[in-house]
Every structure is written in structure tokens, then in C-alpha cells.
Specification:
single chain, about 160 residues, mainly beta, two-stranded antiparallel sheet, 14 strands, elongated
Length: about 160
């Protein structure tokens, strides 16, 4: 079991195992805290939960995409969670990011495999190329976004969102 998500409610503790590698995108564990290794022991005394195991850190769940500050490696912003796998990220030249991979949802929006996040961290709903397979590589040169991966079709045909 890789990582363990703990959701604590009034008088109750729910444990949800992290999604294993190769799981179907779109199926996610609950939000909460995760470890960087397996939890092997747990005990509750009053309102305190004690965890033991082969981990060195417990932190807030971010999903497969996180934006870190270069100066201290702390989370720089809260991004919408990606339901699936992120394989490639490239800046958009305006403080935002293009994100590619194998996924079908970002935040609460249904999308497919390639999205644009604005500098504010919000999803750009006007960018919807929807490649029909996994996006494995992204490169931006000037106003052109080059997209590589295991897909044969996309709804974009021209402009910055055009897979080439």
C-alpha cells in the first residue's frame, strides 16, 4: 500500500489507500493527508492518532500536479487536482502552464489529456484540444505548442493549442 489518506471526522476515522500505479484515471482517494511510504501501524488514543511505518513525511494531498516555490520547495499555489497521470508540463509564456498526460478530469471539469492552467491556477475552459490518447511530451516555441504522445486525433487544428 503506497501512501495512506486519513480523513478525520467527529468521532470517526476513515482510512483510504492511495490509488496504485496503473489504476484507471478518474478514480482518486479521498482528500486529506498522505505519507511518502507505507503506514504499518496505527493506534488511536482519545482525539490523537499515532502512525508508524516506513515513511519520512506526512503532508497534504496534492494529486499528481504541484507547483513549488524554487526558493524553499513549498507549495506555491493550490491547483485543481488532476484525475489521472501527468506526464508533461511546459510554461505558456504568461505565467500559466500547459499540462499533458492521461487524465479525464481537472478539478470538477471533464477534460481529456491536455489542459491549460492560467497564471491564477484556474483551468482555461477555452483551451480544449482533447487528444484521444496520452500526451507524453510538450514543448513551446514562441506561439506554437508542440505535443507528442500516443494519440491520433485532437480537436485543435490551428493556433497555440494545435498539436503538431
Amino acid at each position: 500500500m503506497q501512501g495512506l489518506s486519513i480523513v478525520v471526522g467527529v468521532g470517526a476515522v476513515a482510512l483510504v489507500a492511495a490509488v496504485p500505479a496503473g489504476a484507471v484515471p478518474g478514480i482518486r482517494p479521498a482528500t486529506g493527508y498522505v505519507t511518502d511510504g507505507p503506514v504499518l501501524a496505527m493506534a488511536q488514543v482519545g482525539n490523537t492518532i499515532y502512525l508508524g511505518g516506513s515513511f519520512t513525511h506526512i503532508g497534504a494531498r496534492t494529486g499528481p500536479l504541484a507547483l513549488l516555490k524554487r526558493t524553499n520547495a513549498r507549495l506555491a499555489a493550490t491547483l485543481p487536482e488532476v484525475a489521472g497521470v501527468v506526464d508533461a508540463v511546459v510554461d505558456d509564456g504568461n505565467g500559466g502552464w500547459f499540462v499533458g498526460g492521461k487524465f479525464n478530469q481537472v478539478g470538477t471539469t471533464t477534460v481529456r489529456n491536455l489542459v491549460h492552467l492560467r497564471a491564477s491556477g484556474t483551468l482555461d475552459a477555452g483551451f480544449a484540444p482533447a487528444p484521444n490518447g496520452e500526451v507524453r511530451a510538450l514543448a513551446r516555441i514562441g506561439g506554437t505548442l508542440y505535443v507528442g504522445g500516443q494519440f491520433t486525433r485532437s480537436t485543435a487544428t490551428t493556433g497555440i493549442g494545435s498539436p503538431r
